[in-house]
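Q: Sequence in, structure out?
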Amino acid sequence: MPRTNKKYSPEFKIQVIEDKLQNNLTFSETAIKYKLYTNIKGYEYPDKGKIHDWERIYLEKGKEGFYVENRGRGSIGKGNTSIRKPLDPKIEEDLIAKCQRLEMENEYLKKLSALISARERNEKKSPK
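A: Exactly. Output:
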């Protein structure tokens, strides 16, 4: 039986966790009450892990935690860019100069490679 990843709304998750906390329900009782099951080797079991994860998010981040995408490793480039300090102008100039030198070196090596290839082709064509 194929697994399907059902996506639950933040409102539903909040309702489940608040009900669990207000009524002192166990993870299993909550899963059964809200019909949250996981399929393991063809058998249906109450999905206690899902509720445990939701409760952790609720307790650590509050209701707002359910409205933020938490999957994946995240990215340095996302979010508040004001955290990054501006570069020192001298360092920035040095980096630009280094980049320009590397670009010139790359162009030189491309031209050298093209000349060598052309010479090798000419040597193969010309009779000895």
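Helices lie at 10-22, 27-33, 48-61, 89-125.
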